[in-house]
Each structure stands twice: as C-alpha cells, then as structure tokens.
Amino acid sequence: MKILRWIFWLLNKFFMVPLFRLGLGPFIGNPITGYIMVVKTTGRKTGKTRYTPLNYAIKNGNVYCIAGFGRSSDWYLNIQANPNVELILPSGPISGVVEEVSNPDKALKVARLLFKNSGFAVIFEGFNPFSISDDQIHGVLKRAPVLRIRPTGLGSGASDPQGWMWVTMTALTLLALYLILWR
User: Fold this and answer.
1) Helix, strand, or coil here: 77?
2) What is the layout of strands, in order, in the sheet containing 146-154?
3) How far apart are CA 3 and CA 9, in angstroms?
4) Is the pLDDT of residue 125 over 80?
5) What is the distance between the alpha carbons of residues 123 and 56, in angstroms, rounded to a whole number?
6) Dihedral sign (CA 164, 150, 77, 44)
7) pLDDT reading at 1 higher than 80
8) Domain boundaries in the chain?
9) Which tens digit of pLDDT belongs to each residue from 89-105?
10) Could you give the CA distance from residue 45 to residue 74 in angstroms, rounded to a whole number?
C-alpha cells in the first residue's frame, strides 16, 4: 500500500496537478482515466495551499468524492482542520465546505456513482464498479468515507492569479509564431 501511495503522490505532484494548474484539466477526464478534480486545502501544520487530485461526481448541486486512502490521508486530515476548500473542476473553479456523508443509504448511492466515475483507478480496489454489491461498498466505506462539498462561491482557477494558464497560452503563442514565421 505504501508503494501505491508513493506512485500516486508522484503522479499527482508532477503530472495531474500541473496539468490542472496549466488549464488542461478538461482534457484529462474521461471514462477510462476517470473524472478528476483538484482539491485545494490549507495545510493543517504549515498553512500552505495543498493540491490533491481526486475522482468526483456531481449530484443535486453538490460535488462528492471519497477519501480513497482513508482517514489518514493528508488532505483528509487537512479538511478536518479546515473544511473550507477550493475545487478546480474541469468546467471551472468553485469554493465550498466539506462534510462527511453520514447517511449510509446516501453514501452507498453516491459511492456507486463515484466508483463508476473513477476509471482505471478503481482497479486498485479489486472490484468491478458496475457489478459491486451493496455489502462490498459498505465494506469499502468503513475505511474510506464519502465526502460532500457544498458550493459556497467561486474559486480561483488556472486563468486566475497563481494559476499557470499563462504558461500554456505563452507556449501556444510561441508555437504559432514559429509555425508562421519559419514555414
């Protein structure tokens, strides 16, 4: 499990988060890779902004996710200290407040949707998200809580200050100039 967490840490830090900060998030999500957002939390010890890519689902105006590595995940501990977060969704940024879904029936329905939205990542759980039983889902939810983010406003995205969309646009502009001037 430690190796898997380390692999996800590397993939997230050096691939997923930079792509979202560059404004390329809409090009990542699909049924194979899963539908992904980036959660921006405040570090409980440092106070620094921390970025965590997660699979998500939208239902009834709320955004849902699962703490896949459980209640010991750093980002989960951060939201316990401060439940106010920003999300970088492929469609745009929002801010919100995180709360755990305490109703087991609601958590079950949302978890099933989240598993279907997880793409290949659900392979690491060892089940088929389209045929998993309710009992199996309840087993997963004992260690991995379902979380609801209630939107409270707009967040800052890739095109806003501290975003990296300017890098993408500069690179595309330079590429266009190169193609025009040197062809």
Assistant:
1) helix
2) 49-55, 36-42, 84-89, 92-100, 146-154, 62-66, 57-59
3) 10
4) no
5) 16
6) positive
7) no
8) 2-181
9) 998 899 999 999 999 99
10) 10
Q: Which CATH class is domain 2-181?
A: mainly beta
Distance CA 36, CA 33 (A): 8
How far apart CA 46 and CA 49 sit, in angstroms, is 9
Residue type (1 letter), 154: L
Does 29 have pLDDT greater than 80? yes
Check: CB of residue 94 under 8 Å from CB of residue 151: yes
How far is the C-alpha of 19 from the C-alpha of 28, rounded, in Å? 8
The amino acid that residue 100 corresponds to is E
**H-helix or E-strand containing 88?**
strand 84-89
Structure tokens that stand for 87 in this block: 């999300």
Q: Rounded mean pLDDT of the chain? A: 91
